[in-house]
């Protein structure tokens, strides 16, 4: 039974964009990136070769170390690059809307 509880964390990815940050997490595991930490965001198909399956994954993307937060059955998501050069791939049912919200966050126009 405890394994089922842990497995549920990796099926539901919580993503939110506020006026101050981008937050993405599986249960208690994830990241919060402030507006000033974000460099770019773009829609991208999931790179299977870079990460493999789903859940929280480590791999290489665009020539550097990266992390993926991926749920099953979603083919697209958003690649977020920070000013420090870190890359995060975030699954999304509406990746274009997520990119728009991140761009608004970067430009100080609020949340979505």
Question: Which features characterize this protein?
Answer:
112 residues
Describe it for me?
The chain has helices at 2-9, 48-51, 95-106; strands spanning 13-17, 21-26, 29-34, 38-45, 55-61, 64-70, 76-82, 87-91. The mean pLDDT is 88. The strands form 2 sheets. It has a 5-stranded mixed β-sheet with strand order 4-7-8-6-5, covered by helices on one side. The chain has a 3-stranded antiparallel β-sheet with strand order 1-2-3, with helices on one face. The radius of gyration is 14 Å and the shape is globular. With 112 residues, the protein is of the alpha+beta class. A hairpin with a 4-residue loop joins β7 (76-82) and β8 (87-91). The chain has 3 helices and 8 strands, in the order αββββαββββα. The chain is 21% helix and 46% strand. The termini are far apart.
N-to-C span: 36 Å
Q: Return the average pLDDT rounded to an integer.
A: 88
Helix content: 10-25%
Tally of DSSP β-strands:
8
H and E string: HEEEEHEEEEH
Give the assembly state of these chains.
Answer: single chain
Strand content: over 45%
Task: Note the main sheet.
Answer: 5 strands, mixed
Structural class assignment: alpha+beta
* Shape estimate: globular
Low-pLDDT stretches are none
Output the number of helix runs: 3
Rg of Cα set: 14 Å
Query: Order of strands across the widest beta sheet?
Result: 4-7-8-6-5
Summarize the structure.
Helices cover 21% and strands 46% of the residues. It is built from 3 helices and 8 strands.
Topology diagram in text:
Layout: H1 2-9, E1 13-17, E2 21-26, E3 29-34, E4 38-45, H2 48-51, E5 55-61, E6 64-70, E7 76-82, E8 87-91, H3 95-106
